């Protein structure tokens, strides 16, 4: 439920980085943030939905900001990692693909 608290530290960092890197204008970020406030969606989702940044470019930004490794085709398993343990519908909704199984 949207409550206007969409400006988390991570959201602010992302917005500032996009503007500082020249990828987006301050007005484009402000427009996307208004949409976030109305919809409750994450900034990255809104930016891609509005066509302000492509998903691959957004992934590159997260790599730059967080030092994350970007998964390539070789990182995806040929067969399902958790067959029957998570529904396909759930994975599609949360936009997730399990790539490994950790045993704890």
The tally of helices reads 5
The CA-CA distance between the termini, in Å, is: 34 Å
Number of DSSP E strands: 0
Q: What number of structural domains do the residues give?
A: 2
Which outline best applies?
elongated
Main sheet overview? none
Which radius of gyration do the C-alpha atoms yield?
16 Å
If you had to describe this structure to a student in words, what would you say it looks like?
With 104 residues, the chain is mainly alpha-helical. It has two domains: 9-66; 71-104, no CATH class. It is 50% helix and 0% strand. The protein contains five helices and no strands. The chain has helices at residues 9-20, 26-39, 43-49, 55-66, 88-94. The longest helix has 14 residues, at 26-39. The chain is elongated. The N and C termini lie far apart (34 Å). The model has no long low-confidence stretch (mean pLDDT 87).
Brief synopsis:
With 104 residues, the protein is mainly alpha-helical. It has helices at 9-20, 26-39, 43-49, 55-66, 88-94. The protein has five helices and no strands.
């Amino acid at each position: 439920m949207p409550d206007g608290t969409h400006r988390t530290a991570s959201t602010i960092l992302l917005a500032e980085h996009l503007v500082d890197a020249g990828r987006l204008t301050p007005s484009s970020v402000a427009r996307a943030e208004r949409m976030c406030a109305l919809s409750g969606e994450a900034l990255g989702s809104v930016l891609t939905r509005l066509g302000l940044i492509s998903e691959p470019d957004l992934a590159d930004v997260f790599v730059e900001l967080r030092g994350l490794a970007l998964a390539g085709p070789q990182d995806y398993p040929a067969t399902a990692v958790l067959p029957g343990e998570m529904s396909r519908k759930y994975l599609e909704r949360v936009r997730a693909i399990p790539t490994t199984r950790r045993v704890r």
